[in-house]
C-alpha cells in the first residue's frame, strides 16, 4: 500500500486517519504542494486530477479520499467503518459528498499559509506555466486568487459561515459516537480534517460546549482516539 499525500492536506488526513483506524501499514510518500509536485507529469499519470491524496494498492492507483476510505473499508473490513444499514450507508455517502463540496471554503484559509506566498513570488511567466498544468478550471482560479488576488475579509467571512453551517448540521446529527447511525465511522473520519482547521484557526469558539455541546463532545472523543494521534494532524501554521 503506497499513499501519496501531503501532511497538511485535509483530504490526505482523512485517508491517513482511516488507515490508522484499521491499523494498516503503508508506504507514505510526500507530495510537496508548494512546489506543485501534484502537477508533475509523473504524478498526473497516477492521479490525473492533480491533487493529493492518491494511493496504490495491489499495483492499482485510486484517487478521491472519500472513495479511497470506502475502498479500504471494503478490502479491510476490520474494524467496520461503514453502517450496515442501507439507508444509513446512503446518508453517510451524502454527508461525505456534502463535506467534499465545502473544500473550496477551506482552501481560502489553508492556501494563505505557504502556498500563496510561494505563488505570489513567481514571475508572471512562471505563474502562467504553473497554472497551465492545473487540470481543473476551478483549481486554476483558486491558484490565481491565492497568488494574485488574495481573498477579501468578506469572502473569508462567507467561507467561514459555510463551514459553520456544517457544524450546525452536525449538532443535529450526532448520536452516540458518531454522525451516522450513532457509530463512529467514515462520515466522522471524512469530517475530522475540516473540524481540525475550524478548531485551530477558522472559528475555534464555534466548537465550545456552550456553542455546540454535541459537536464539542464529539470532537473531544475523536481527538482522544489513538488513531487520531497516529494520523498526525499537526498544526497547520
Ligand atoms: N476531492 C478530493 C480533493 C483533493 C484536494 O483538493 N486535495 C488538495 C489538498 S487537500 C490538493 O491536492 N490541492 C493542491 C491543488 O489543488 O493544486 C479528495 O477528497 O481527494
UniProtKB/TrEMBL annotation:
GO molecular function terms attached to this record: transferase activity
GO cellular component: cytoplasm
Protein transport keyword on record: no
Residue ranges annotated for the GST N-terminal domain, each copy included: 1-80
PROSITE patterns xrefs: GST_CTER, GST_NTER
Ranges of residues in domain GST C-terminal: 121-237
Domain of life: Bacteria
Transferase as UniProt keyword: yes
CDD domains for the chain: GST_C_family
Record keywords: Transferase
Protein name: Glutathione S-transferase family protein
